[in-house]
Amino acid sequence: MLTQAAANKSALLHPWRPGLWRMRLPQGRVMLAGVTDRIGGFDALRAQLPSIRRFVLAEQVHGAGLTSIETPQPPLERIPGCDALTTSLPGAALVIQTADCLPLYVWDPGQQIAALAHVGWRGLAAQLPVRLVSFLGTRYQSRPERLRAAWGPAIRACCYEVGQEFDARFPAWIRHDGTRRTMDLIGCAAAQLRAAGIRAGRITDAGVCTACDSPGERRGVILSERSESKGDTARWHSVRRGAQPEERLLSFIAIRA
Ligand SMILES: [Zn+2]
Question: Where are the domains of the chain?
Answer without folding.
Answer: 2-255
